[in-house]
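Issue: copy button drops trailing tokens. Both records pasted manually instead:
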Amino acid sequence: PFLNKGLPYYSPIQELSYYLPNYFRIKKILDTIIPDIVHAHGTENSYALSALRSGYPAIISIQGVIKEIMKFNKPGFRNSLKTLLEAKSIRKGHHFICRTNLDTSFVKSLNSDARIHIIHEAMNPVFFRKKWEIKNENTLLYIGSLHERKGIMVLLKAIQHLKREIKDIHLFVIGRGNDDY
């Protein structure tokens, strides 16, 4: 981006530079706004490190644990760098917004002094557009993206096991993602 030539996705220039080109753009905007606090969403790109470098108080929302997500992605140098930069962000940060036991324990494993703020995110309004009627007590609802890392296959296998004992079981799925599902 700093060359205005457009680099290929697999090029690790941003990660190798610790996202410095993006940081300078973000810092310029922050210095114009002079915020009381910077809320960075996620550690997967430049936002967390930029917020932490900015000199303003910062809080980081953990949107996912890159180290875990990378188990489902192609291994590679760029992905390894992203994992290292995620760890750097977490070690350097003080305040984190977490949603699950997984992200909370991950942050605490890298930064025992981290202040964790549990904030559950709101549901997508699409959930409320349908009138949901429970047909029986054996109804399950899955809301999430359809990717292996979200555990959809684990859920489907669990349903297979449940069907051995509970014949009348229903699963509703709301989400999109990988066409394999």
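Record 2 (pasted manually too):
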Amino acid sequence: MNEVQEYWNYGKRKIMRTFLRNLLQGEISGKTEIQQELIKLGLEHVMKEKYTLIFFAFRKEQILTQGKKERLNQFIIDNVLSEALTEEFEMANLIHREENEQYYVIVISDKEKEEIKKQIRIVMPVLEQYYVNPVRVIYISEKKELEKLAETRNEIMDYAREHIFENGEVLLLSELKEEGEKPRKI
């Protein structure tokens, strides 16, 4: 790959990550506004119509440590999760977020739910090679259109704030919404 292609790929990754972060935070909303932003940024042919949100709630003390190790931890997580949970190894599809003593990594996945579940079973032992019980809980949404991702993120965050899971459980958001239904581990 020549230098221009490498620079474009790096720049595209930054543009995509910024777009996705703004989308999840609700700064860009509505189908028309999202489409206009995709065209403006040159991402209209890169982005897919629907994505699944996967929230990893990590044990903050395992990931965020002082100094250089923190960046290395984020790099390891980005590589492991993007390779397993995105079709084209898209590290831009991972958003790190700290909130109220919690540390989340949100994966915007283009894979199907069954493949995601299969890959999570593979990913967990890999992460446990680097960290001791690193994941508190993982939430998986249904596949949603771009304009519904911010709403889905808010649903997951609201649920996460009200419930505490500590055993690395994998929970499907669709099951959490069903009244009287206890979420099952995958």
